[in-house]
Amino acid sequence: MNDTVLREAAVEEGARARQRFILEDTGFDEVPKKYRRFYRRLSGPEDSLAPNEVICPVCKVVIRSTRELREGDRVYCMPCMSRLVVVRSDAGHLEARVVY
Amino acid sequence: MSSEVHALAPAEFLEQVHSFEFWFQSVEGYLADTEFGHRPGTPDLELPPDRRERLITVLCNYCIGETAALEGASGLIGFAPNRQTKIFLATQVVDEARHLEVLLHRLSELGVADPESEIQRRALRTLPVFRRRLLELVASKDWEAAIFAQNVVLEAMEFAAFQTHARNADPVTREVLEGIVKDERRHMGFGENDLGRRLTANPHVRARLAQVKRELDPLVLESFEEMLDVLHIPRSERPELGRNYLATIERLGFAP
User: Fold this and answer.
1) Residue of B17, B95, B246 to mutate for A, most A C-beta atoms under 10 A
2) CB contact under 8 A, B189 and A79
3) CATH for the stretch B12-251
4) A61 contacts in B (CB within 8 Å)?
5) What is the pLDDT of residue A3?
6) Which of B50, B168, B176, B217 has the largest count of CB atoms under 10 Å?
7) What is the overall mean pLDDT for chain B?
8) Distance between terminal CA atoms of chain B?
């Protein structure tokens, strides 16, 4: 799922600018309406994550952000009520880990 | 209040997701147009007699699991550590009762005239043993052990088993199970996160829970294996049944 890139954010201090995204409603129906665009279901093995997405390790829903995600970012999985931090895996991918 | 979910403060996030308001607005999304857990227009295919029999046996055992979850969750409210948790558990009680109701209704759609006696007659060996042990833990008011048994062990297993079954089920049963799985996400997540916070603050509790885990693991794993055997779901299609649970307990710091 690739959301519309809204704009490149202003250059952050000492870092490349982050992309911003306009999130579309993907039909995810398990949270209140105003939060639905922040989540989607994995659509199968061919599905790939966009730079603004990570998978919740607890319930496997795709968590989406209005900005490109980076290590250290905090996100919430509302469908399973988990608080997560974005980390870089040994394989070099961004992934989410639960913060209790 | 912000609609940028990831900008919420942790306390604000927890207050929202543990509320009845959150629950109402969430279940409205996937239950509003359903009757007894499925859309009225979904075709109810006539199943071959053998497949129908097997489905009835499995649904009867799901009823045992959901009854245990209903009794367990309602018992937990009495000694939950704070009001926010009591409110969340009340939403879980409603979910568990709905699960039981839609499963009983599905049994009646399949022609079961007396579900109560059918459930007793078709109970597999291990699930009633797990139910008894869960209710003992709740009765002992051991919060960590009871929430572990109910919202981590039982819910993680149900989540995986129902997902696996839904992929192989007739259209009506599939919709019923998919709706239950959406509820289970909240229960499972609540259990892991509540327990995770407690274990972080009180690491010594882990040894006691490891003992409970050793006792319950074989019961639950065997229960769901028995049910998937009844459904004739090949072993190659069951990988996430154990994996989901093992990943959860690993995150909580238990050895598999």
Assistant:
1) B17
2) yes
3) 1.10.620.20
4) 185
5) 66
6) B176
7) 93
8) 41
CA distance A14 to chain B (A): 23
Which residue(s) pair with B169 in the sheet? none
Range name among A10-24, B20-34, B164-178 with the lowest pLDDT average: A10-24
Closest partner residue to A82 (CB to CB) among B29, B189, B247 is B189
Gap from A52 CA to chain B (nearest CA, Å): 12
pLDDT mean across residues, chain A: 89
Work out how many domains chain A is built from and give that number. Answer: 1
pLDDT, residue B1, reads 45
- pTM attached to this predicted model: 0.92
DSSP state letter for B125: S
List the end-to-end C-alpha distance of chain A, in Å, as a whole number: 29
Residue B250 C-beta-side C-alpha neighbours within 13 Å: 10
ipTM for this prediction: 0.91
Over residues A41-45, mean pLDDT: 88
> Distance between CA B66 and CA A46 in Å, rounded?
34
The residues spanned by each domain of chain B are: 12-251
The DSSP bridge partners found for residue A19 are A8
Domain interval for residue A46: 4-98
Closest CA to A78 of A61, A94, A65, A99: A61
Question: Reduced to 3 states, what is the DSSP secondary structure of residue A7?
Answer: strand
DSSP assigned state of B151: I
Asked whether the beta carbons of B173 and B42 are under 8 A apart, the reply is no
- CB pairs A-B closer than 8 Å: 81
